[in-house]
Amino acid sequence: MDLLHVFILAVIQGFAELLPVSSSAHVILAEKLMGYDPSAPDMTFLLVMLHTGTMFAVIVYFWKSWKKTYFSSWESFKKQAFYIILATLITGVLGLALQSIIKHVFFGGASSFEIEHLFSNSKLMAAALISTGVLIILSSRLDRGQSGEISLRSASIIGAVQALCLPFRGFSRSGATISTGLFLGVSRQKAEEFSFALAVVLTPAVILKELYRLVHAQGLQTVAHGQVFHSMVLSLLGMCFSFGAGLLALKWLSSWLEHGRWHLFGLYCIGFAIVVLCVN
Q1: How many domains does the chain have?
Q2: What is the DSSP letter of 119?
Q3: pLDDT tens digits for 103-150?
């Protein structure tokens, strides 16, 4: 892996992550075209670090609106923080349960199974992309500009839907959670804010998991030779590149969501699913 490839992947990630088109699917396809194994520990860690760059872009972009929604008063902060924590806990519990089901039903309970093994399955990725596309299109058609707020019910359901996105690359987290919010009558702005607030909470835990996986897989001898350090440096640079691209993408997302063009992202997901199948 060299700096040019990291830069290309970071730009793809930065633009695709904050649009509901599954950045993971785009990055994984690009990795395959470059000859890399998307399920390898250093590549999954790079992907997570690229997500981190866009996470910081989210914080910078949404900070003003979050201050009004989440930090306007102590009562508002407690209520919104509870919803975010509740949704995240539901995501964690259901996500682990789903991973266990996949492991025992489809992999015979193999001790060597890791959920990252699914990342190289192009057919599964295409199916997830199509599912996201259909979900986005349906939510766009049913959206009538509702003005609802996040509630206990909507936070719980959004958290459950987010859990379905974790093991399946191609099932866009932002696309699924924002669409679910629209289905439940949440306003476009509130659904967008809540979706990306969940992303900010979820990302650090994923980073720690992938860092552990990288060190554990490559072993102490590799660490001594500096290969893990090299991977981390490139991943940090990629994080910076994806941060810049992510800020530009957020303006695009907000504009299309607020001006009734949400369905176009769904059409793109379906079209990209066909590309994934053709390339592989």
Answers
A1: 1
A2: G
A3: 887 777 777 666 666 666 788 888 989 999 999 999 988 876 677 899
